[in-house]
Amino acid sequence: MHGMKFYVGIWAGLVAATVIEVVTRSIPGTFAVISVIILLISSGKAVTIAMYFQHLRYENKSLALLPIAAVLGVIILAVAAWMSMAM
Amino acid sequence: MTENYESSEEKKSSLTPLIIAGGLAILFFGLVVYIPLAIGGAVVLAIGVFILFRDSVEGKFADLKESVEEKWPLEFLSKRKLGVWIFLLSEILIFGSLIIAYTFVRFSSISWPVATQVHNVTLGMINTIVLLTSSLAIIFAFVSIRMGNIKGLKIGLFSTFGLGVAFLVIKLGIEWPAYYRNGFTISSGLPGSTYFVLTGLHACHVAGGLVAVGYLIVRTYQGGFTKTNHSAVENIGLYWHFVDIVWMFLFPLFYLI
Predict the structure, then answer these.
(1) Residue B169 CA to its chain's centroid (Å)
(2) pLDDT at position B6
(3) A62: which chain B residues are within 8 Å (Cβ-Cβ)?
(4) What is the pTM of this model?
(5) ipTM for this model
(6) Which residues, 6 or more positions from B209, have their beta carbon under 8 angstroms from its beta carbon?
(7) Domain of A77, in residue numbers
(8) Which residues in chain B show pLDDT less than 70?
(9) What is the dihedral of CA B178, B243, B246, B46, to 10 degrees?
(10) Chain A residue numbers touching B241 (CB-CB < 8 A)
(11) Fewest CB within a 10 Å sphere: which of B130, B141, B145, B209?
(12) Both A48 and A22 in a single domain?
């Protein structure tokens, strides 16, 4: 268990990543490239919150099976949706 | 207090989960077919939540322990924490499905308005920082109670509550009315309906989180948490962080891309 200084550091990193996301929107590049960069930053923020604020980093690894199973379900839905669109 | 199931029939029997589930079912069914029915469902739901809240405050959820221990991979977790994680699993599927549906609709549409022409990026960014700060505040509450610091717990919980309210005020009190004035409404087309359904559902979750944090505040003033007994703070914190995580995806999908 960390002290508040550690969590404030994580929070500052998340706020900085948010600002970078907003700035990324106005850099030159194609819509697809910028979208991928922004979504990668967002995914990184989400994982950071889960790992450190929800303490998944320090829990027994078996617990990670629950959110991983749910994300896997969402990925299956996404693939099914995109496949149906491509057909 | 630890008791065997066999000797605590009265304690383990409760109709409250059925009342809450029934209220939710009537509410959503009513929203689709008949609004007054939905209001009735909301009343049943409120009664169920009230009974749950009352029973919890009165300490009716004393831990029960099975006479025969279960053996399975998650036995190291308390039942309440496991329940929260299974609940979050279902929430990931709900929001994940809706987000997938949104991207499916968006990228199969011939035209879609540019995000910055419709949405206020500055307000979206402020709301993101407000929600991130609220997550930090509930962490502060948790770290404080782990050290037995009740004053810190109160500061953390009130800050979380205030920041949650601020998020809803910005979202529902400033952004949404501005969209409606500009003709961007839930019935103005797919961009509007997807935006209001997803951010509306998220706002409902924030409101639910506020009720939960309000419960923590009441319990704190009743002396319900100590250095060794504070699992509710951690478990409701898990939910609050999840609401934060969902917004980490909604913000870029609607405001930036």
Answers:
(1) 17
(2) 45
(3) 73-74, 76
(4) 0.80
(5) 0.91
(6) B164, B236, B239, B240, B243
(7) 60-87
(8) 1-13, 61-73
(9) -70
(10) 49-50, 53-54
(11) B130
(12) yes
